[in-house]
Amino acid sequence: xxxxxxxxxxxxxxxxxxxxxxxxxxxxxxxxxxxxxxxxxxxxxxxxxxxxxxxxxxxxxxxxxxxxxxxxxxxxxxxxxxxxxxxxxxxxxxxxxxxxxxxxxxxxxxxxxxxxxxxxxxxxxxxxxxxxxxxxxxxxxxxxxxxxxxxxxxxxxxxxxxxxxxxxxxxxxxxxxxxxxxxxxxxxxxxxxxxxxxxxxxxxxxxxxxxxxxxxxxxxxxxxxxxxxxxxxxxxxxxxxxxxxxxxxxxxxxxxxxxxxxxxxxxxxxxxxxxxxxxxxxxxxxxxxxxxxxxxxxxxxxxxxxxxxxxxxxxxxxxxxxxxxxxxxxxxxxxxxxxxxxxxxxxxxxxxxxxxxxxxxxxxxxxxxxxxxxxxxxxxxxxxxxxxxxxxxxxxxxxxxxxxxxxxxxxxxxxxxxxxxxxxxxxxxxxxxxxxxxxxxxxxxxxxxxxxxxxxxxxxxxxxxxxxxxxxxxxxxxxxxxxxxxxxxxxxxxxxxxxxxxxxxxxxxxxxxxxxxxxxxxxxxxxxxxxxxxxxxxxxxxxxxxxxxxxxxxxxxxxxxxxxxxxxxxxxxxxxxxxxxxxxxxxxxxxxxxxxxxxxxxxxxxxxxxxxxxxxxxxxxxxxxxxxxxxxxxxxxxxxxxxxxxxxxxxxxxxxxxxxxxxxxxxxxxxxxxxxxxxxxxxxxxxxxx
Length: 690
Fold this sequence. Notes:
Layout: E1 8-9, E2 14-22, E3 26-33, E4 38-45, H1 53-67, E5 77-86, E6 92-101, E7 105-107, H2 108-115, H3 120-139, E8 142-143, E9 152-155, E10 160-162, E11 169-170, H4 193-196, H5 203-219, H6 229-238, H7 244-247, H8 254-262, H9 274-285, H10 291-294, H11 299-319, E12 329-332, E13 337-340, H12 351-391, E14 397-399, H13 409-418, E15 422-428, E16 438-442, E17 448-450, E18 454-460, E19 465-467, H14 476-485, E20 489-490, E21 495-497, E22 507-511, E23 517-519, E24 523-529, E25 532-534, H15 544-554, E26 558-564, E27 574-578, E28 584-586, E29 590-596, E30 601-603, H16 614-623, E31 627-630, E32 640-644, E33 650-652, E34 656-662, H17 671-675
Parallel strand pairs: 15-18, 20-24, 21-24, 26-29, 31-34
Antiparallel strand pairs: 1-2, 2-3, 3-4, 4-6, 5-6, 7-9, 8-11, 9-10, 12-13, 14-17, 16-18, 19-23, 22-24, 25-28, 27-29, 30-33, 32-34
C-alpha cells in the first residue's frame, strides 16, 4: 500500500489491504467491509488527477453507469464516496473512490499472456459471458467503449466478469468519442473504425471490440499490431485482419466468418446486437451453422480488396504497357488521374496516340465549361441564401428537455410541451421494459430544435412473452443453455430440493414452471435434486397393491413384503412401513412393508356341559385370549356350566363367549328328618296314639 494512502476509508468502514491492480487513473486495493464482514475491492482515484475535471467526470461516470446494473457477468459496485488523502507536499487532496465486488481470479489478458491462445470451447464460454454482459448493458442504455482482455476477469469458478466502465457512455451520449484534448477514447488494439475516426459510436462499436477479443483468444495475438497507437488505429480503419484459420492451422473456417462479421469495417455489416452475436456462437457450439455469419457477404472486406486490386492493376498498366496501341501512362498528383506520357521530341505519334490526345483535349474543354457553369450556379445559390437570410427572421431554438423513464406518458408530454414543443407518442415494439415505460425520444434529450417542433416520445409495449421450456432431468449446463437459447436469463443462484426420481445434481423444475409464460430476458431459477427423498405419508390402511404401486412406481423404492395379524387393520391392507412415513431416505432405498392378515383366529374348546364348573371354563377361555360373559352375574366359580356359545368353532381372538350356569343341588336335610318315618300328629309328638 502506498505510504500516502490511509489505512481505511469511510470513517473506518473499509479497511484497506494490499494493492491488487492499477490503471491510468486509479489504483485498486483489496479491502474488508467491516460493517458487512465481506471482502471488497476499492478503486481509489490517483491524487494527481483529483483536480482534472475530465478524469473526475470519467471516474464518477463509471459509478453511475454500473451502479444501476445488476448482472452476473458485470462487476458490481456497492458504494462510492470521497476521502481526504495526504499529498507528497504535506497538503490534503480530496479524491473519489468506488467500492466494488471483489473477484478472485485473473484477467483474460494475463491468461492469454501466460498460456497463449485458448481452446475453442474456452474461447466460446468466455465470449458468451462477455456478450451476456454487453447485451444487458446495451439494454440498459450503456455502451462500454473499452472492451479488451484487460477489462475481462475470469473468477476461480470460471465466471466471466466485465469491469471498468470508466469511459462508458449512455446511448444518447454516444457521439462523444473524443476527449477534450481530441484524443480517441478506447484502447488501440480493440478500437472500432468509427472510434478511430472520432465518429459517433453505438453498441455495434462494442461488438467490434468483442470480435477483436475473440480473435485474440483464438490466435493468441490481437488482429492488428504496430509501432504506435496511430499505426494500429489506421489498420483498424483500412486494413483486413489475417483470418484466424490462417494463423492457427486446423481452426474451423466458420471462426473466420464469425470474426469477420463482428469486425466488419462498416458497422451495418456487423452483428446488430450482442444477442445476435451470442446466438451465432451458441448455434456453432451445438453443431449448427451460424445464421448471421453464414449470410455475411463480407461486403466491405471484399470491396476493399477489389479497390486494392484495381489500384495494383492501374499501377501495373502505368509501368508495363504491353498491349499494342496502349500508350504509357503515369499518375498525376495534381489532377489525381492517370495521364499519357508525352513522347520525347523527334518521336512520331501513332494514330491511337493521336486519338487519345484529341479525346483528352475534348474532355478538358468539357471540364472547363462545366466548372464555369458550376461556379456561376454556386454564386447564384450563395446569393439567394444570403438574400433570404436577411429577409427571414431568426428561428427561436429550444432544447429538448431531459426525459426520464420514471415519468409516465402524461409527465413526458407535459415536460415536452412546457419547453415549447409538440408532443407525439409512439409505441416501442423492440423494448423489453415494462409496458408503458418511456424508452427514448426523437429528437433525443438535449438536442437543440426550432420552437414548435414535434418531439416523438416512445413508450414500451412490454417485453415479449415466451414459454418456459421443460428442462427437468437435464444437467445444469444443459438447462442453462436451453433456457438462454429460448430467450431467458438464468439466475446464478440455484435451489435444492428432495426428489423421488430425478438424479442428484440434475434439474427437478424451474421457477417460473415449465409451460408458463414469462417476459423475454426475465430471470429463471433452477431447482436441483439433492438425491434424497422422503417415505410418503398415509400408507397405513391402504391396500397392498396401492402401496406397492406408490413405492415402486412413483418413488422407485425397493420393497420387502411381510405379514402380521392386526386387530385394527383389515386383511390385505398395510399395517406399517420401515423406515416410517416422512423419514428422509436415499433414492431407491429399501422399504419394508407389513400387510395385515386380519384378526388372529382361535378355536373355542369343547366343555363337559352339566359337569364343568364356571371356574374351569373361564380359565380355559381367558387363556385363549377370549372374553367371558356369564348370564348369571351372581354365579360363582363352583356353578355348573350348562351352555357355552360358539363351542368348538373358530372365532376372532378377543371375541366374547357367553357362558350359562346353574347352581349346584341343595343337600341340607337334617338326620332327624331322615330317621323319622311317621308323620307328626299335630302336637309335636311322634309315636303311636295313646
